[in-house]
Amino acid sequence: MPLLNTASETQPEIAAWRQELHSRPELMFDVHETAKFVSEKLRAFGCDEVVTGIGRTGIVGLIRGRHGEGPVIGLRTDMDALPIVEATGLPYASQIHGRMHACGHDGHMAMLLGAARHLCETRNFRGAVAVIFQPAEEGGGGGREMVADGMMERFDITQVFGLHNEPGIPAGRFSIRTGAMLAAYDEITIQVKGRGGHAAMPHQTIDPIFIGAQIITALQGIVSRNTDPVESLVVSITKFHAGDAMNVIPPVAELAGTVRTLSKEIRDAAETRIRETVENVAKALGGEATLTYVRKYPVTVNHAAETQLAIAAAREVMGTGAIETEAKPIMGAEDFAFMLEARPGAMINLGNGDTAYCHSPDYDFNDEIIPVGVSYWVRLAEMVLKP
Length: 387
What we know:
By secondary structure, the chain is of the alpha/beta class. It is built from 11 helices and 16 strands. The protein is elongated and about 80 Å long.
């Protein structure tokens, strides 16, 4: 099945939905206007059930097929934006300063809405499709909250699938792999305690800035010297706060950053070595350091059978040559991982073309790929729930 005619014909309308959502971005779980927009569309399309407030502000629309009883599959998208000042200058740019759909969640919602409308109109499948609109993907763990709220059990979901746009991949081309698709994401905060004093007399102090600098260097040794070179580990210190005056060595410094891994074994080992390194480097230099290590998102792991279903659907939409089936893992994270821990499924990437990368103030979702995403969702649902 090539691109759906209806998806191509309605692309301008679906793009208009996307641009409206883009202009009014909301953050984390506070996606109330976005959720209202989505739920009103789903009701207008004729979903058999539209349930709001799952995982605080998530939405599930249930669409029953016309070919009798069968399983229920979940098709998931994300709704929240990012705390970024938009720099695109587009006519539909964010109207709320400091908020921006800089990761394409506006486009993800629009494509799934387009697919939901088509599935409501045709219902050419057995069982049911649950279209899932999730809040707080950008650090809030909305996927975890929807699972914890009993979503899978409430709708009897047996398999779940996700889709994300990917800048740098040609527009309309797909990318996927079996196994680890995206990394686990953890946050670290390090407090270094020393002894403050005059900047002209450092020998009378225990300089927490110097200690912090040594900790940063030593942490990279965990990556290069304690981790198997064929494994993946990224430790990034992204904050370093200390002092307020030019001529004063402060008593305390605070560092923070992220840790990203692709396996449980490396994740566990990294936490242990980071803690040992932080504490012992500080002690060796006369200070004291404490580590707060918070595990945020697990590895996004695609299940083998569901990955093959996603590949088959993508090939039917865009052809065999339009999908990379052995894509390299991405060290970014996705809280769709929580849904994949709860049910078998797969996440696929859809090329956004030669655009700015996600989380950039210059990023914009490519509206030309909307028919591809809509067609993929529809074909996947009809294939998995074949009468």
